[in-house]
Structure formats: structure tokens, C-alpha cells
Amino acid sequence: MAKQTVVQNEMDLDPGLIVSGMNARFGLRTARVKSLAEEIKKAGGLLQRIEVYPVEGGKYQISFGNYRKAAIDLLNEEGAMMKVPVTIKPMPTGPTA
Q1: E strands of 14-58, at which residues?
Q2: CB of 36 within 8 A of CB of 67?
Q3: 37-86 residue pLDDT tens
Q4: Which of 70, 74, 75 is nearest to 50 (CA)?
């Protein structure tokens, strides 16, 4: 069996380039987002990168990290001007895509 190579890129993206994969019916709990925003602020930034994959229009879809992205958005609304540290993975394929 051939070994599969996974290409990953790490960078900081503008929050406007990242779209949430979260189902709008479920939404995010406001108290959890606020608490996480405070933790990010105290830590001086996000400690764990958000995992994204490229989608149409030069944007990126979140695979993991919807709450972290929402917390950064909240901090930016308060004037933080943070970019989002991400790991870019290949677009998923198959029945889960």
C-alpha cells in the first residue's frame, strides 16, 4: 500500500476569509464564547490553531474550532484586531464532505 502524504500549511488568516461549518439551527452558546474569549485574551492569543480547508471564492471552511473562531470574532468586535491562526488541510472527500 502506498504511503499517503498529507500537506499542511500553518498561517494566520483574516477572520473574513473563514466561514463556519456550524449548523445554524444549533448555534453557539454565548456564555461559552465569552468565556473562551476571556481565556484567549489572558493567554495573549489563541494557543491551538483552528483547522480549515479551502472552499470556493478564496475562503476557508472550519473543520475544527468554531468556538475559537467565534471568540476571536468577539474580541475583534471589541477592538482586538486579531488574525486567526489556522492549519490548512486538504478538502475532505467522500460521503462526509
Answers
A1: 18-19, 50-55
A2: yes
A3: 999 999 999 999 999 999 999 999 999 899 999 999 999 999 999 999 99
A4: 70
